[in-house]
From TrEMBL:
It comes from Thalassolituus oleivorans MIL-1. Residues 1-20 are annotated as: Disordered. Keywords: Membrane, Transmembrane, Transmembrane helix. Residues 1-11 have a biased composition (Polar residues). Residues 71-346 form the Fatty acid desaturase domain. One of its GO terms (biological process) is lipid metabolic process. The keyword Lipid biosynthesis does not apply. Pfam families: FA_desaturase (PF00487). The keyword Transmembrane applies. InterPro entries: FA_desaturase_dom (IPR005804). This is Fatty acid desaturase domain-containing protein.
Length: 372
């Protein structure tokens, strides 16, 4: 008998779906109260989104100008620009759900292009729209490309740590899986030939010339300074060619102003997101098994660069309609609903379980009960 027989019985699935509907109903009521209390945020949603977009872009430009003028130190440029990119990520997520300028496509796509160019190490947002909407349908399953792409479900170790903040390494350190697994999923009937074609198209579109070039620059920049650091500890000096040294000014400027802030933001977001989502033993389509609320105080430094994602994203899985700022205003009351309904908070065992909801012992208990 399957270890998940008890969980996947018709009555159990019916009860789970009913629980999802109850949670959605209660969270929608919270959302309605926030919307009624802040009607201007709803009435002028397009303007609010555009205002946040322009402020964030101008903030990054200002940081860059202050750096090149020698006014703002490197660490401050990276930290502040990482914060602005976290806002742009929230906007991209809202745009993927068509929350801004739905009826005026020109401005919608202008914003899509802007949030992408300010975060060029990310997946093309028009492509990500497909993977993200699919994520909502199949979160935690083998075809959830969005979360699995950022290491959800992988065992923790140095390899995963390297992949969390680097999308290029996340691909190259898992090349066999990218080639072998789609065929296995097809053989097992979990995807069809059309799905397989789409998976390959999405994977190919994820590697844009801009993102690949910037990742190469970042890797070479890190290796260059790492080599110099090792040489310095050995009281030696590397005789770099003059043409390479001549590139350092513009490369350093690009890294400080654009690449490093995005690497910092990417690591923080992917660390939080890949560990607050469950993988592998949750039931497909059952929302309350898809993710937890992850907001312990010691993760606040990471939350600062993904706009408190761990605290609010579980709400989004139930109520998709709200832009991120409405969701944040509703957080306190929404958390009360989630706690009452048994949604997990700060389940740090997820790190040792490779993001599974349960331990093997849990399923052993289900087996015993099912066979009794």
């Amino acid at each position: 008998m399957s270890s998940t027989t008890g969980l996947n019985s018709a009555d159990s699935l019916k009860a789970a779906k009913q629980k999802d509907r109850q949670i959605q109903s209660e969270l929608m009521a919270v959302s309605d109260r926030v919307r009624n209390n802040h009607p201007s945020l709803v009435k002028h949603q397009n303007a609010v989104g555009m205002g946040i977009f322009l402020t964030s872009i101008l903030g990054m430009v200002l940081n860059g100008w202050l750096y090149f003028e020698g006014i703002m130190p490197v660490w401050m440029v990276i930290v502040l620009s990482a914060f602005w990119t976290s806002l742009l990520h929230e906007l991209e997520h809202d745009l993927i759900h068509y929350m801004y300028f739905r009826k005026t496509p020109f401005w919608h796509h202008v914003m899509m292009a802007g949030v992408y160019l300010a975060r060029p190490l990310t997946q093309n947002p028009w492509v990500r729209r497909h993977t993200h909407l699919h994520h909502h349908k199949v979160s935690g399953t083998e075809t959830d490309l969005e979360e699995r792409g950022i290491t959800n479900g992988e065992s923790w170790g140095i390899r995963r740590l390297l992949m969390v903040g680097d999308n290029m390494l996340a691909f190259y350190l898992r090349i066999p899986k990218y080639f072998i697994e789609p065929r296995r999923l097809l053989k097992e009937g979990k995807v069809n030939h059309k799905d397989l074609k789409n998976l390959r198209l999405i994977a190919a579109a994820s590697f844009t010339p801009l993102g690949t070039t910037l990742y190469l620059i970042w890797h070479l920049f890190v290796l260059f300074h790492l080599a110099n650091g090792i040489a310095w500890t050995l009281d030696a000096q590397i005789a770099w060619p003059q043409w390479l040294l001549a590139q350092q000014d513009w490369v350093t400027g690009l890294v400080v102003v654009l690449i490093a802030p995005n690497v910092l933001r990417t690591f923080c977001l992917h660390f939080i997101s890949s560990n607050m989502h469950y993988y592998g033993d949750n039931r497909s389509g059952i929302i309350h098994e898809q993710c937890q609320v992850m907001n312990p105080w010691y993760l606040l430094p990471l939350q600062a660069f993904c706009f408190n994602f761990g605290s609010t994203h579980a709400i989004h899985h139930f109520v998709v309609r709200d832009p991120f700022y409405i969701r944040h205003l509703a957080t306190k009351e929404s958390h009360e609903v989630l706690r009452k309904q048994g949604i997990r908070f700060n389940d740090m065992g997820t790190f040792s379980r490779a993001n599974r909801m349960h331990t093997k012992e849990h399923y052993a208990g289900i087996n015993e009960a099912a066979n009794a």
